[in-house]
């Protein structure tokens, strides 16, 4: 009788031991699979020549900055995501990494850029300069409450939420493999979001109900003196970048925002504020020998054709490519000699937009 009990106890202990071994093995396999495929590139570039798939900017940005090989960066918001960075590599003989932050303020973009600069000396910084970013708060919006902070540290000790994550195993890794197979968001098309989007006037005008706005006289300009300090500090952050890295060439692109964006500024009395911000930044950066500024806002054939847009600011990828090609041959560059005339042309364009062009669609 005692023998039977002892055998039963031994069987239970053996079963428990086997169960624990199986559980431990499953944990090790799960962690190994995440480490091996590493969809956020926390630890390494892909093995065995697999394609890099970049389709999750917030989660993949820290790891790519830390682990990828590059000597140049393309910095910007969602307006910069559809640039083909491989074109920059060919045109400038460099290796470019995209540094993207949605609605990226100067502070947010510098948070990432400075990490890249700490890692190595950069040859080129291509910066898509959003006017609105220059009036954005000076605090970095990334924090432990809204971001997976383990991605932003250089240690594996806090990576358990990454290594043991059902979404990573069952969604992110299969998605990465499928995108690699289809060639989506690979090569210079990192973070490109244009696939499946509609770029046409009927889609774009949904973002702005100009037909429902009735003005009685000229809109009263808003008082933006309370923003001057923030604007100045943001501009100074860019100036300090250029001054602190004299061997890096900074190429700023001012992208073409649609006429809806400019008419909205006029309607809300914010036109002078937006022109002031643009002038303040460009005028501050032009004196630097290592800075080039390329300006596309006055391209009325783009700005006034709403078939180029999907909303008030996001344009079709062909516009991204046009800007890169023009920049590569030195076209659309503003200088100290032509900036005053360029700004005057913007004022004329803004006036024509709100008096004539906008009503072709409403």
Descriptive notes:
The chain has 362 residues and is α/β, with parallel strands linked by helices. 46% of the residues lie in helices and 8% in strands. It starts with a helix and ends in a 7-residue tail after the last helix. 33% of the residues are buried.
Structural class: alpha/beta
What's the overall average pLDDT, rounded?
Answer: 92
| Strand elements, count | 6
Described by strand count, sense and barrel closure, the largest sheet is: 6 strands, mixed
Q: Summary?
A:
It contains 13 helices and 6 strands. With 362 residues, it is an alpha/beta fold.
Secondary structure topology:
Elements: H1 2-37, H2 57-67, E1 72-76, H3 85-92, E2 96-100, H4 106-119, E3 124-128, H5 160-163, H6 166-182, H7 201-204, H8 228-244, E4 249-254, H9 259-267, H10 271-285, E5 291-295, H11 300-303, H12 317-328, E6 333-334, H13 339-355
Parallel strand pairs: 1-2, 1-3, 3-4, 4-5
Antiparallel strand pairs: 5-6
Helix pairs in contact: 2-4, 8-10, 10-13
Tags for this model:
single chain, 362 residues, alpha/beta, elongated
């Amino acid at each position: 009788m005692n023998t039977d009990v002892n055998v039963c106890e031994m069987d239970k202990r053996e079963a428990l031991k086997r169960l624990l071994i199986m559980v431990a093995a499953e944990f090790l396999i799960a962690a190994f699979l995440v480490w091996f495929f590493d969809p956020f590139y926390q630890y390494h570039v892909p093995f065995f020549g697999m394609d890099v798939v970049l389709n999750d900017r917030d989660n993949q940005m820290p790891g790519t900055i830390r682990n990828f090989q590059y000597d140049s960066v393309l910095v910007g918001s969602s307006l910069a995501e559809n640039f083909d960075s491989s074109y920059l590599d060919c045109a400038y003989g460099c290796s470019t990494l995209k540094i993207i932050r949605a609605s990226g303020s100067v502070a947010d973009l510098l948070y990432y850029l400075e990490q890249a600069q700490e890692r190595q000396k950069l040859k080129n910084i291509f910066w898509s300069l959003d006017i609105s970013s220059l009036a954005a708060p000076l605090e970095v919006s990334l924090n432990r409450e809204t971001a997976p902070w383990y991605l932003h540290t250089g240690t594996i000790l806090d990576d358990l939420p990454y290594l043991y994550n059902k979404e990573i195993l069952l969604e992110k890794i299969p998605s990465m493999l499928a995108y690699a197979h289809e060639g989506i968001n690979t090569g210079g098309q990192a973070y490109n979001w244009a696939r499946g989007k509609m770029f046409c006037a009927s889609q774009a005008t949904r973002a702005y109900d100009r037909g429902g706005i009735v003005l009685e006289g000229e809109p009263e300009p808003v008082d933006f003196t309370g923003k001057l300090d923030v604007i100045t500090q943001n501009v100074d952050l860019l100036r300090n970048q250029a001054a602190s890295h004299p061997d890096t060439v900074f190429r700023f692109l001012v992208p073409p925002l649609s006429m809806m964006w400019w008419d909205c500024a006029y309607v809300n009395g914010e036109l002078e504020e937006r022109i002031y911000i643009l002038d303040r930044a460009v005028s501050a950066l032009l004196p630097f020998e290592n800075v080039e500024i390329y300006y596309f806002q006055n391209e009325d054939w783009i700005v006034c054709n709403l078939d180029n847009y999907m909303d008030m600011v996001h344009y079709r990828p062909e516009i991204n490519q046009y800007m890169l090609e023009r920049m590569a041959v030195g076209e659309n560059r503003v200088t100290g000699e032509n900036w005053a005339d360029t700004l005057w042309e913007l004022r004329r364009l803004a006036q024509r937009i709100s008096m004539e062009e906008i009503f072709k669609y409403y």
